[in-house]
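wait is this the right file?? whatever heres the structure
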């Protein structure tokens, strides 16, 4: 069983597109939902954790799977 609820395929996309796609999907999800962003751009290792810190989501880490890196993000609570 996967460690995430939803997967977003961002393979072949350069940043900031993985961040923008993750942001769009996360906005529509419930608090606590875990998303896996599959990215090949090395800058995603910098941009996705930074985005999570700014947006109030939890960056759970990354794992390399060949040329793809899987980034796990837990949807944070809505900010007031």
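ok assuming it is, sequence goes like this
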């Amino acid at each position: 069983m996967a460690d995430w609820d939803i997967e977003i395929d961002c393979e072949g996309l350069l940043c900031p597109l993985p961040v923008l796609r993750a942001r769009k999907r996360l906005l529509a999800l419930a608090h606590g939902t875990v998303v896996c962003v599959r990215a090949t751009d090395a800058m995603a290792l910098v941009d996705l954790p930074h985005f999570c810190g700014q947006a109030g989501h939890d960056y759970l880490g990354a794992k390399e799977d060949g040329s793809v890196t899987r980034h796990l993000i837990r949807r944070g609570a809505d900010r007031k």
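The CA atoms of residues 18 and 24 lie 10 Å apart. so i think its the right one actually
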